[in-house]
């Protein structure tokens, strides 16, 4: 067993941040060799049970903060090198930059190189779990799963299904894409900490037959995830209306093909109406909110007020490479600033603890992994970060003067980036 002495952040079941300025975190391996949280709380209350016990290693981290590893609810590993590609909006961005770049992932050696860099970049930024798109090439999934497994990370990913309105090099074949998806589920889902996500890119690039097949797989493999994009951009919404005139709305296309259920995550979810939001709630599907991507591609903004009224599940996501940064701090910053625009009219803003929750325990809940990751309550897998709140002169000044938890978290959200993350510890590190 290891016990850490440091400031400690975790979350209660209702999403409230719980903080100990002098905390204790005890972790120990379970029968499978996964490190789990055994105890978390104030040093004073817990230390007598743990210190000076045989087999207990004590690690003191003065001036540091231990917090749950971040969970990125939507990211594209093959777009690591697409960050910062300028375009007038989503559809030209896909056509001119993203699709040509993704065609390179047919080459396994190239995919391996990017997957290794991507995984190290996640860890450098304190992200311990992500729900990730690969490309349409099955080997791109082998590459990311291999890289995640080598690092002992809990990673969920899937091969992109896109059998129409896509250029040569990324377009797959309807039947073969579904066969490959099932093969990859059987090869990777549940291996160590890995999970598979059925991944139709978005409704415009899949035929009815492909979406139907994806829905059948989703019914057959009930604990596999589903990920796609929805209602990100108004041109995209108009295109879906032309392609699927029978469906009530863009979101309803996915429902019509059996792709809305628990463990389904829809990126963006901006241009939804009340009926759509109810559908998200009723099916326990979740929205991945990507504020830096929505800013970069001028897509619009996620409506927190209406999402909360509908009781929707949601969490934060970088959406690299539409998004601008791997850093959860940059994503939380953008969510706050964008939220100012939309919420200030009602005299509201997003509280720092709520922003942090959306990128940790809230994102874990959206994945159906509450109590497993994204938190540091007893029983959780011990994926966590060691934060140095004084990592820059300005942050040292600002966090040093924080009078309460909100001020401390806010200083890091507004001024922070990868420099805050001193160490990322993964519960099954090899
Ligand atoms: N919609 C379909 N594909 C994509 C993608 O790669 N990125 C974003 N942001 N939206 C999409
Ligand atoms: Zn995306």
Distinct ligand kinds: guanine, zinc ion
Query: What is the fold-level CATH name, i.e. the topology of the largest domain?
Result: TIM Barrel
Number of H- or I-type helical stretches: 16
Largest sheet: 9 strands, parallel
- Give the CA-CA distance, first to last residue: 17 Å
Q: What is the level 1 CATH name of the largest domain?
A: Alpha Beta
How many domains in all? 2
CATH superfamily of the largest domain: Metal-dependent hydrolases
What is the percentage of strand-forming residues? 15-25%
Write the layout of secondary structure elements.
Elements: E1 2-11, E2 17-29, E3 35-42, H1 43-50, E4 57-68, E5 70-76, H2 90-102, H3 108-124, E6 127-133, H4 138-150, E7 154-158, E8 160-161, H5 174-188, E9 194-200, H6 208-220, E10 225-230, H7 234-243, H8 250-256, E11 264-268, H9 274-283, E12 286-289, H10 291-296, H11 304-310, E13 313-316, H12 328-343, H13 352-358, H14 361-366, E14 384-387, H15 393-400, H16 405-415, E15 421-425
Helix pairs in contact: 3-4, 4-5, 5-6, 12-16, 15-16
The structure holds guanine and zinc ion.
Residues 74, 76, 229, 267, 319, 322 line the site of zinc ion.
In summary, what is this structure?
This protein is an alpha/beta fold.
Care to describe what's here?
The protein is α/β, with parallel strands linked by helices and 430 residues long. The protein folds into two domains: 2-68 and 375-425, Urease, subunit C, domain 1, CATH 2.30.40.10; 70-366, TIM Barrel, CATH 3.20.20. The protein has 16 helices and 15 strands. It has helices at residues 43-50, 90-102, 108-124, 138-150, 174-188, 208-220, 234-243, 250-256, 274-283, 291-296, 304-310, 328-343, 352-358, 361-366, 393-400, 405-415; strands at 2-11, 17-29, 35-42, 57-68, 70-76, 127-133, 154-158, 160-161, 194-200, 225-230, 264-268, 286-289, 313-316, 384-387, 421-425. Strands 5, 6, 7, 8, 9, 10, 11, 12 and 13 form a nine-stranded parallel beta sheet that branches. It has a six-stranded mixed beta sheet with strand order 3-2-1-4-14-15. The model has no long low-confidence stretch (mean pLDDT 97). Bound molecules: guanine and zinc ion. Zinc ion (ZN) is lined by residues 74, 76, 229, 267, 319, 322.
């Amino acid at each position: 067993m290891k016990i850490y002495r440091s400031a400690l952040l975790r979350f209660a079941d209702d999403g409230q941040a719980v903080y100990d300025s002098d905390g204790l975190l005890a972790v120990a391996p379970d029968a499978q060799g996964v490190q789990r949280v055994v105890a978390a709380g104030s040093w004073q209350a817990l230390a007598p049970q743990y210190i000076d016990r045989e087999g207990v290693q004590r690690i003191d981290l003065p001036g540091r903060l231990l917090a749950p590893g971040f969970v990125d609810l939507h990211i594209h590993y093959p777009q690591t090198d697409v960050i910062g590609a300028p375009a007038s909006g989503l559809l030209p961005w896909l056509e001119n930059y993203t699709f040509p770049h993704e065609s390179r992932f047919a080459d396994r050696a190239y995919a391996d190189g990017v997957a290794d860099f991507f995984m190290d970049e996640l860890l450098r930024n304190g992200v311990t779990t992500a729900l990730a798109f690969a490309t349409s090439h099955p080997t791109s999934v082998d590459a990311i799963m291999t890289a995640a497994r080598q690092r002992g990370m809990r990673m969920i990913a899937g091969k992109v299904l896109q059998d129409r309105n896509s250029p040569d090099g990324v377009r797959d074949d309807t039947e073969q894409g579904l066969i490959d998806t099932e093969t990859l589920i059987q090869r990777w889902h549940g291996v160590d900490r890995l999970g598979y996500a059925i991944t139709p890119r978005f409704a415009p690039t899949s035929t009815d037959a492909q979406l139907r097949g994806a829905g059948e797989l989703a019914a057959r493999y009930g604990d596999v995830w589903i990920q796609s994009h929805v209602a990100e951009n108004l041109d995209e919404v108009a295109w879906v209306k032309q392609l699927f005139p029978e469906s009530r709305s863009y979101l309803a296309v996915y429902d019509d093909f059996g792709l809305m259920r628990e463990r389904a995550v829809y990126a963006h979810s901006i241009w939804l109406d009340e009926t759509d939001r109810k559908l998200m709630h009723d099916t326990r599907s979740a929205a991945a909110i990507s504020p830096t991507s929505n800013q970069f591609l001028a897509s619009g903004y996620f409506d927190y007020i209406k999402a909360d009224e509908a009781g929707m599940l949601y969490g934060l996501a970088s959406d690299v490479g539409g998004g601008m940064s791997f850093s959860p701090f940059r994503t939380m910053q953008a969510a706050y600033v964008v939220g100012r625009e939309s919420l200030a009219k009602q005299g509201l803003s997003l509280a720092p603890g709520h922003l942090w929750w959306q990128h940790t325990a809230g994102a874990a809940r959206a994945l159906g992994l509450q109590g497993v990751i994204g938190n540091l309550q007893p029983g959780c897998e011990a994926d966590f970060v060691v934060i140095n709140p004084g990592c820059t002169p300005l942050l040292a000044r600002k966090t040093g003067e924080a009078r309460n938890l909100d001020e401390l978290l806010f200083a890091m959200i507004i001024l922070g980036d990868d420099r805050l993350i001193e160490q990322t510890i993964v519960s099954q590190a090899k």
